[in-house]
Amino acid sequence: MQAKPSTLKVLDIVSLILLGVSTYLALVFAPTEAVMGDVQRVFYFHVATAWVGMLGFVAAGVSGIVYLRTGDLKWDRVEMAAVEISLVFFFITIVLGSIWARPVWNTWWTWDPRLTTAAITELIYIAYFMLRQGIEDPDRRARFGAVYTLIGAVSVPITFMAIRLFRTIHPVVIGTESAEAQGGFNMTGDMRIAFFFALFAFTVIFIDLFWNRIRMGTLADKVEQLKLKVMQ
Amino acid sequence: MAESTLTTTTHRPAKSSFWKAIAAIAWKDLAAELRSRELLSAMLVFSLLVILIFNFALELDIATRRTVTSGVLWTTFAFAGTLGLNRSMAVEKDRGCLDGLLLAPVDRSAIYFGKVISNLAFMLIVEAIVLPIYSVLYSINLFQPGLLLVILLGSVGYVAVGTLLSSMAVQTRTRDVLLPILLFPVVVPILIAAVKASGGYLTNAPMTDILPWLNLLIAYDVIFTAIAFMVFDYVVEE
């Protein structure tokens, strides 16, 4: 059993501090939005968690391809860690978004491209874990997982484009917005600070979680091997 | 992976043998089905039952019929399709036929394409029977060239992904229930585009409204056939 690397320990603490500071910036430091009021503060963490979900999504797709090329089980653990983190953070994004949408759009949910794509991505992740659960052989489990991640990684952007051919009401705060978007606003200087700090903080948190989860996967595999050795 | 390269290099099959292998596998499935008719009859009866359920669930009167017909049709095809895909792979797995196929000195992708062709044939046969029945039951003309093209394109994409995923699903413990769970979230683009394009043809929408959906269907078909072709080796590897 190797000890936890000291860099990781430091990163754990830094992540916690960053999360705290980011919470302060979002809830206290940033000015209250004129039209929507305090509920707009959800925005900082909503975008930041969605960003982490995207990072996990991309990381999963890439490590799936690398696994298929190399056949090294290490990449399977990386892929699973990425999928798990992305699953949780997209879920948080959806919940936070719903909290914001209830007063602003007057509904918890609408079949908008982003919302629908996020929901379908969650379903693909759940299917991914159900697929893995049904397979005993670690090599086959890793291969099937990687193939399914690859298919999901390609189909999700196509799904997004497909639904985008309909109209969207989701606001785009950075970049150009469609005319039908509801609940958009312009960020002031202090809002920008809170926003970009939240993005930065959650990127660090992502790296920290990712590292911890990969390490846990490696240890779990080691335990499995030791168990087999004892049983023989 | 290693064995497949070994067999292809040692035997070095002629180029025509790839197409022959595809045809042989597709023909084997079709001949077996022609004798038993297990799969086709199950898919067909199931499709008719789905339409029956929709009839009561949606009250398909003349006003709603125009707008919901494409949705009803594609839901029926998607559900009936999983039945066929599951069965066609489960048959191979149950009697150890898959191992036999894999031992054959042909490229693995030939097995995939052979399976795609037979699965596509089953799906098209079911659709060819469901369409006239639906037309008669609801006195709506479904035999428009555009609509038939959409159904062909949609079925190709559905079967291309479905064949790959069903060959994964049958190798798991939960194989009876897994296929639709794996398949439906990744064929969402096909279902959206096919429903929209079919609806466009049924309501006589202008071609500029339908064309993006057709392009999407073609793009999806090409991309996913290519991906499945590339990764099929990993799925059947022992």
Largest sheet of chain A: none
The number of distinct β-strands of chain A equals: 0
Strand content of chain A: under 5%
Domain count of chain B: 1
Oligomer: heterodimer
Write down the secondary-structure element order of chain B.
Answer: HHHHHHHHHH
Tell me the helix content of chain B. over 70%
Measured as a percent range, the helix fraction of chain A is over 70%
Look at the helices and sheets of chain B and give the structural class: mainly alpha
Describe the structure.
The complex is a heterodimer of chains A (232) and B (238). Chain A has six helices and no strands. Chain A has 232 residues and is mostly helical. Chain A has one domain. In chain A, helix 2 runs antiparallel to helix 3, helix 2 crosses helix 6 and helix 4 (113-133) runs antiparallel to helix 5. The mean pLDDT of chain A is 88. Chain B has helices at 2-11, 15-36, 38-58, 62-94, 97-103, 108-138, 145-169, 175-186, 188-202, 207-236. In chain B, helix 7 runs parallel beside helix 10 and helix 9 (188-202) runs antiparallel to helix 10 (207-236). Chain B has 238 residues and is mainly α. Chain B has one domain (15-236). Chains A and B meet through helix 4 and helix 5 of A and helix 7, helix 8, helix 9 and helix 10 of B.
Provide tags for this entry.
heterodimer; A: 232 residues; mainly alpha; B: 238 residues; 10 helices; 87% helix
Summarize the structure.
Chain A is mostly helical and 232 residues long. Chain A has helices at 6-29, 42-70, 73-104, 113-133, 138-164, 189-231.
What's the structural blueprint in terms of helices and strands?
The complex is a heterodimer of chains A (232) and B (238).
Chain A: H1 6-29, H2 42-70, H3 73-104, H4 113-133, H5 138-164, H6 189-231
Helix pairs in contact in A: 1-6, 2-3, 2-5, 2-6, 3-4, 3-5, 3-6, 4-5
Chain B: H1 2-11, H2 15-36, H3 38-58, H4 62-94, H5 97-103, H6 108-138, H7 145-169, H8 175-186, H9 188-202, H10 207-236
Helix pairs in contact in B: 2-6, 3-4, 3-6, 4-6, 4-7, 4-8, 4-9, 6-7, 6-10, 7-8, 7-9, 7-10, 9-10
